[in-house]
Amino acid sequence: MAYFLEIKEEASDEINDAFHWYESRKTGLGDEFISLLEEYFNRITANPLLYQAEKEVHVAVMTRFPYKIVYGIEESSVVIYAVFHTSRNPKDLER
Q: What fold is seen in the domain 4-88?
């Protein structure tokens, strides 16, 4: 069963910020970030239990880019709560 993907506004803002930062460093790098992120979203919606749970959420650590995807499973949806740079304090993510 494939799950629906819901991206919270805060996570969407983080994705946009990361895209623009990478794109400002090198044209096309932001697109590479988004492409890899989409691959992770596809894996997560296909198998939400693939990544380890930490407290009430699951965390997928991206390769190549230093980001973590924080998500939860709610009925038939995967909810992306955050896509944050690993240098950030995880306590900033507490809901």
A: YaeB-like fold (3.30.2310)
